[in-house]
Prior knowledge:
The protein is α/β, with parallel strands linked by helices. It is about 40% helix and about 20% strand.
Amino acid sequence: MAEVVCMVGSYLGFGTYPELLREATIKLIKDYGPKADAEGITTSDAVFDGVPVRIYRPVGSSEKETLPGIVYFHGGGFVLGSVDTVDTITKRLCRDTRSVVVSVEYRLAPKYTFPAAVDDCVKATAHFLSNAEEFNVDARRIATCGDSAGGNLATTVPLRLRDERFPIPVKLQLLIYPWTQSLDFDLPSMIQNRDGPMLTRDVMAFFAAMYTEGYDNHLPDYVANRHVTRSVREKISKTFLNLEKLPKEFLEGYERPAYPDGDEKLWAAVKDRLLNPYHSPLTADSLENLPEAYVLTANYDPLRDEGYLYATRLREAKNEVTLYNAENGFHGFGHFLGILPEADHALADLIRFIRERL
Length: 358
């Protein structure tokens, strides 16, 4: 219903479809989503190197107490979301892990396409790492964390900091149903969960087009998997999108659709972005020397398989990896804390991991 109202509003000139959908999403989550208990937490807004952030701090921490830190990146396909839409989980992480949490308000598509979001999140994280003492945080105990598109950022940030030889490494990367590639929308989980719940295959293609190009003129090509040429698709199916690395149960009932020919002109225009590891980290030539990872996937999520394949590649690159697949979970189920037991169980496991490792 919200999508229809936003389409009508866009047609009537009240704003663009992404802008209206963004506002509607924030209002729905704020008005009807679970509310986090703010007791025991102080909240303040700040700007880190030009990037707006919200800082959550446990009450009762003394000036002499050094705490761990978590930099959180919200989800929303790089088009939707804000620090408000993840307020519940950031407060829970702050209180239950006794960490200073920095939630980043990065720039969104379609106005700001790749790599704007990555640039913002790298700057905010580098600022926090460099100035951790100001917040009584141990710079050696800072993690990146995020859901969906935020899960993409939670791994691309340490990847880029590694490549730029930033002197202070991120300790952990916590990836919640991460988006790790935009080259193939016909993976088994994309087909099996094409109609959701929460995230559909076609909406995923819409987000990819918006983040990559800033408009949806080529959306039919993304939906039909014609944004990548046949020769490239055949090549990547033998490397980082090798389905033989997926568990057998993920492949049950799956029949691979025939490779379309692909639009050569479109591929030429977008290939440098789609193959950029800071856009699609699954495509990175090297994933060595990255932080220990916790990867949460959900069985009924279109992004399940790319999350699993990314965890596999991280492990093959000799990184420590913990993989948790929520058998009854779906994309975005973490927004239903206190409502869905699966969400509560998954968060409890993530919090346990943070307490043990950070």
